[in-house]
Structures are given as C-alpha cells and as structure tokens.
Amino acid sequence: MEQQPKQRKPRVWTRRIVGLVLLLVIFNLGIAVGDGRISIDRTKPGGASSGLPNRLNYDSTNQVYKALKDNYDGKLNETQLTNGLKHGLATSTKDPYTVYFTPHEAKEFNSELNNSFSGIGAQLGQDKDGNLQVIAPIDGLPADKAGIKAQDIITSINGTSTSGISVDDAVHKIRGPKGTEVKLQIVRNKNQPIEFKVIREDIKIPSVKTKILEGNIGYLQITTFSDDTDVLVKKAVTEFKEKNVKGIVVDVRSNPGGLLESSVQVSSLWLDQGQTVLQEKRGSTVIKTYSAQGGNSFSGIPTVVLIDGGSASASEILTGALRDNNDAYVIGEKSYGKGVVQQLINFEDGGQLKVTVASWFRPNGQNINKKGITPDKTIKITDADAKAGTDTQLQAAQTYLNTKLAQ
After folding, report:
1. Per-residue pLDDT for 317 more than 70?
2. How confident is the model at residue 166, as a pLDDT?
3. Where is the domain boundary, 59, 80, 106?
4. Which terminus of the chain has fewer Cβ atoms in its 10 Å neighbourhood, N or C?
5. CATH number at residue 178
6. How many helices (H) and strands (E) does the chain have?
C-alpha cells in the first residue's frame, strides 16, 4: 500500500523562510560600516542622548529571539545572536562611523589603527551612492603596486559582486594569508571594468617617512596618525634641524586619519602654544578646544601641505590648523571631508564601541564634513602622470617653496 505523503512540508518551508528573514533582520542590521577614516579621541566619554530610558525593554526582542529559536532551520549559538544585537544597536544610529566591535574585531581594528595588519594595503569606504570605494591605497604596498587608485570603485571580490556589501565584510573578504591572491574588479571614472590580481602581504607600516629634496627642502610624509607618529615626527625635527632645511613639504595625501591627539601634536610643531588646532562641538555648544602644546620647532619655516581625495579626518585637522593659522600653503586636490570625532569605549569582554561623539571645526569656524578642504592651488595627477611616475603635486610644492625662499 502506497503511503500518503505527510502534510508538513509547507510548514517546514514556512519555518525556513521565517527563520531566514529573522536572521537577516538581526544580522543585516548588525553589520556596521567602518571605513578607517577616523579621528579617535581617547578621552573619557561624556554626554548622552536625551529622552532615552536607562535600560531598553527587550520584550519584543525576546519575541523575535523565540521565533528564531523555534523556527530557524540552521545552526545558531548564543554568542552569534548576542553579537548581532550589539552590532544592530550601533547600526541603528545610521551613522557609518559608529560601530560595535566584537573582541576579535576590536583586536583587528586596533592592529589596523596602529598600521599592523595583513592584506593589500588599501583603506576602503563607500561613495555617496553606497558603492565600495578605495579611499586610499597606501604607498608602496600591494594595492598601490598593482595600480589601484584612490576613488576606484570595487565592483567584485574574487568574482562575487560587492553590491550591498558592508565595508567591514569587504575588508574581511579582501584580507587573507600572506602570499595568496585576491582578484578585484575595479571601475575607474565610470569606464569599463578592469581586473586586478593583488598578492596579499603582512603589513606593518611606519606612519612617517622623511627625505631631503633638492633645494634643502624637508619632505615629511605622514601615512596615518597612529601611536608611533609623535616619536617619528620628533626624529624628523632633529633630522631637519641638523640639515638646516629651508622649507618643508608635509604630504598627507591618501592619509585616512587616525588618532586626534596625534594630529594635535604634529600641528604643534608649527603653531605657537595656545593657538587653536580645532574645536569640538555638540550642536552649537563648544565642548572642547584643542590648542597647540608648544615646541613649535617649524614655526616660520615656509611649508606646503599636500592633500588629495584620500586625505581625511586627522589629516584634515592638521591641514586646517596650519592653513587657518597662516603656517602653510595647501596644494593638491580637495580632501575627503570627515568632520566628526569618535571615542573608543572598551568593554570587559574585550569588545569596543567606536561612537561618534561630536563634530570638529577648523580654527576659522568651518566644519568640513562632506565638504572637504579645497587647496589654495588645485593640481591633479593624471593617469599619464602616474604611469610616468611624475608627481606634479610635489613638483608644484617645490616650485612654490623655491619661489618663496628666493623672495
């Protein structure tokens, strides 16, 4: 006798669909966008959103959890679900710079902040349309050597489309063991896609490089503002004084930012003690003013700051401080435009919250968020220039300084 089929299949599929939807709700909301363009303020957090209760009511959340637990046709664990909720709380702000990190993610984030990570050596973000964008390939590292440029759009990673992907997910997909290959499809200037094959490397980058240019001009390149920046810049001060440099080029092109305190320390090399570097505001209220700390070793030395579309956050703090206090001339292309400040809040389990706490304003009173800093002289490096190894922006800086020194 033929057995009649059981009438449970629709219920199974219903459970699967419900479970998948709920899983997406928890985890897609839990994916935070973090692009590395940061000005981290490590002072004690202050202030709170008004009108919120001291504790959230989790009754409705527990209803979702129970539905997921009872219906999801797959494997879940408590840590996975809890982390999804924490990610979701940060993402609910709709602020791309407010991000929750699990203990593992926090470790990776801090390694990257201090220039120690494994991958291709490029800072990623999103453009105004939500496309995955290269903010800054780091000089001399795999992405840069492969020919990838700032503002390139990454449309696929190893053949998988990046449509709808978060920056964090993209970073995890691009990173991998040293010596392995990652394939990136790039769209540049809305032209036909180009495929790049990039070999991953272990990356540990000193944040400062120096050299002496023709005409006894000191060249100071700052790739990020990290824990070692202050020490390395002080070494540059000694070197430049010993060489009796007549002018200085500060190169923060493709510098995505870093520690706010570091940008204040570097700015202080030019500014008199007490001069304003930046102000932090919540709404229209000034909550903190950062001033030059003294030790203005470079005061009075003609200086050019080089910027481009990959110069962001702490790079823009330095640029604005020197420009507004009449200590530097700015050459290059308009900077990225990130005028908000984050604080890192540590939790007992090793997790962290990177949370936007204020907007920052230049000494001239401007907030550059989503606007950037327009250089005094705009110079672009064309594809032909880049291919030929011709740095027209640096050449313009040298010409400006030589002319000024000859006056």
Report:
1. yes
2. 87
3. 106
4. N
5. 2.30.42.10
6. 11, 21
- The number of beta carbons lying within 10 Å of the beta carbon of residue 24 is 10
The DSSP annotation for 223-291 comes to: S-B-TTHHHHHHHHHHHHHHTT-SEEEEE-TT---EEHHHHHHHHTTTSPTT-EEEEEEETTEEEEEEE
Cβ-based neighbours of 147, under 8 Å, separated by 6 or more: 196
Structure confidence at residue 401 (pLDDT): 97
- Tell me which of 39, 166, 263, 313 is the catalytic residue: 313
What pLDDT, on the 0 to 100 scale, is given for residue 201? Answer: 92
| Residue 179, phi-psi category: left (phi > 0), alpha (psi -120 to 50), beta (remainder) | left
User: What number is the average pLDDT over the span 181-207?
Assistant: 92
* Residue 169 C-beta-side C-alpha neighbours within 13 Å: 17
**Residue 338 among the catalytic residues:** yes
Partners of residue 305 on adjacent β-strands = 250, 330
Question: What would the pLDDT profile of 217-231 be if each residue is shown by its tens digit?
Answer: 999 999 999 988 999
Q: Residue 211 has what DSSP assignment?
A: E
Catalytic residue among 254, 262, 335, 338: 338
Q: Which of 171, 203, 235 is the last residue of a domain?
A: 203
275 and 386 part of one domain: yes
Nearest Cα residue to 342 out of 12, 100, 30: 100
- Active-site hit among 324, 327, 335, 354: 324
Element at 322 (helix H, strand E) = helix 314-324
Reading the block at residue 307, the tokens are 């910027």
Q: What is the pLDDT of residues 332-349, one digit of tens each?
A: 999 999 999 999 999 999
Rounded Cα gap, residues 298 and 240, in angstroms? 9
Give a yes or no: residue 112 inside a domain.
no
Instruction: Kindly report the CATH number assigned to the domain that includes residue 395.
Output: 3.90.226.10
pLDDT, average across residues 83-90: 94
User: Does residue 324 carry a catalytic annotation?
Assistant: yes
Q: Which residues have CB under 8 Å from 255's CB, separation 6+?
A: 136, 222, 223, 224, 225, 310, 311, 312, 314, 315
Give per-residue pLDDT as tens, 45-83. 555 566 889 899 989 999 999 999 999 999 999 999 999
For residue range 10-39, list pLDDT tens digits in order: 444 444 433 433 333 333 333 222 344 556
The tokens describing 38, both together, are 């940061």
Residue 125 lies in a domain: yes
